[in-house]
């Protein structure tokens, strides 16, 4: 029963005339009847209603989201064969607990996807697949429910391409090996056997092969029971045939009764019956409407050449399948014998052969019973966009998939040489066409496609320009740190995070610890930003400030008789010029408050903590960034890598801390090694030198100025006590200036 009927010689889908749908959406066009779909679902579920069962619609028959949504709303489960189909059913609102995953080639990614969605069961088809699902489940801390799909070696009378239950097919596990596979599953901690499955083929027109298959499955269930393996469901798959022409499939009632009776008689204990019907639910829900482009008479026959072909409906070409073909408007004209063919360049491109029809060029025809394996098998072969799909519900029509456009056909492809494209088509990549040129191009491509192509070419041009751009930089060095400086007043632009990562790498780029940017605000005052090699911005870097000052002096960008001011993201740093390449940087005041660090302990002059089984005493302060300072007898032996790292990452410091290990040498000298957060042991840390000197002065070991020896060199720290700012003195060096550019 369906709802594709004539009224006054006009074909209707429910209450809408096909010709009206075509007026709106063109041809070729798939038209579905919602009422028919709902009826078929109810018909299938009704005949099984009296016993525990689950119906998992086979998505591959037709995966349109609008149709899946209707079925999901009716409570359908789904049988999927790929991650793509899983995404479809989830998007349609399906309950993942009613999803069965079939197919011989499940990838690791698909298994992960299905496990995280929480599907009901994997129908497994080989031992390596069983192993893989177990491994993935264990990695994810889950247990996967599985059913073994058996190959019952049954010949169902159908086309060889759609028979799946023969021993010679790739599907299922040989019935003689099934018990062994369940024993393997039993041993695997990531798996749980919950069912057993089979699927013997498609378009099967007798009940007997299904019963034979079910008996074979039930014998195995009985054998498994003797081995102590108990299951919950048997899945008999899909495959029930429909009438395309003169076929007489068994009624749903006789099919269901035979299955349920067999189950009752031969199951060793009560089992739920699961089914995976595809075709029987959707085949009759759709027609494919096409227009006759030409009638072509040849010596041997007459061809009606349609605007639809094997790309829209592959079944005739693939299986020699028969579909009824009817006129959209009946006429009294004389019927003639016709082959209905498509425009595709293949001799197998036909939709019907030797049909009696009265049609003229320009007439519409409808191919019947195309809801299953129709649109879902369609392709873009011959660069043909796929047809539109329209759903009719009573007197309403809704577009549920728009016709594919030329832009859709080309959207995923990448033009390698835009020069050739531009040359062949007189296209200018920058879009600088005059009115005549533009009109010509629009004529060739159509307006929408032309605009799409232009936007694509312009985007490509932008990326090319970006790639070919030469980026000036200056490489600097100060106390064992190396910097790259970008002068934003000299044609440089700030690098992206990706570029910083790329260029900071010594193998792929220039190599540097930090990227500095500088831009003039007004006389002797500059905007100054500091980025780590990972692209993140940091608040302050005294060594970098000296490098910037040196650069500005060398380029005569400052009045060297006055101080220089650098505005960082959170403060202004003042720099005094002491000599040609020697500078004193105001590093601000030390802040001992735990909030400034932040440190989750009450304020004290020193803290104790147990690390690596020993008590460690440290002082904590912020010098623009947080520092913990530990005093050690000899820096050479300081536990930088162990204690430094543990303290850095300790939960007392929610945003981590730098850790300095200082050895007092005399009252104006100390040696220091620093574990820097996010970096590890560093050759040079300006703020760390300040922090160590401040603690040494505060605790009475040293007096200002203090020479701090770091592995990368020496700094002199000046601090006149509480309420005074800390000054850091040191030098900087220019290494070289260069350009980076990335060729294609
Ligand atoms: C294709 C398929 C189905 C659906 O078959 P129909 O003939 O459309 O009912 C069910 N289960 C499996 C495993 C399939 O491959």
Description:
This protein has an 18-stranded mixed beta sheet that branches. Strands 4, 14, 15, 16, 17, 18, 19, 20 and 21 form a nine-stranded mixed beta sheet that branches. Helix content is 28%, strand content 30%. It is elongated. The protein contains 19 helices and 39 strands. It has four domains: 215 residues, Alanine racemase (TIM Barrel, Alpha-Beta Barrel); 121 residues, Lyase, Ornithine Decarboxylase, Chain A, domain 1 (Beta Barrel), CATH 2.40.37; 125 residues, Roll (Diaminopimelate Epimerase, Chain A, domain 1), CATH 3.10.310.10; 131 residues, Diaminopimelate Epimerase, Chain A, domain 1 (Roll). Strand 24 and strand 25 form a beta hairpin. Helix 8 runs parallel beside helix 9 and helix 14 packs across helix 15. With 744 residues, it is of the alpha/beta class. Pyridoxal-5'-phosphate binds next to helix 10.
What features would you highlight for this structure?
nine-stranded mixed β-sheet, alpha/beta, 4 domains, 18-stranded mixed β-sheet, Diaminopimelate Epimerase, Chain A, domain 1, 19 helices, binds pyridoxal-5'-phosphate, Lyase, Ornithine Decarboxylase, Chain A, domain 1, TIM Barrel, 744 residues, elongated
* Major β-sheet profile: 18 strands, mixed
Would you identify the regions where 5 or more consecutive residues have pLDDT less than 50? none
Helix-strand category: alpha/beta
The number of E-state strands comes to: 39
CATH domain fold name of the largest domain? TIM Barrel
Strand content: 25-35%
The CATH superfamily of the largest domain is Alanine racemase
Bound molecules: pyridoxal-5'-phosphate
The rough form would be described as: elongated
CATH class of the largest domain: Alpha Beta
User: How many structural domains are formed by the residues?
Assistant: 4
How many distinct helices?
Answer: 19
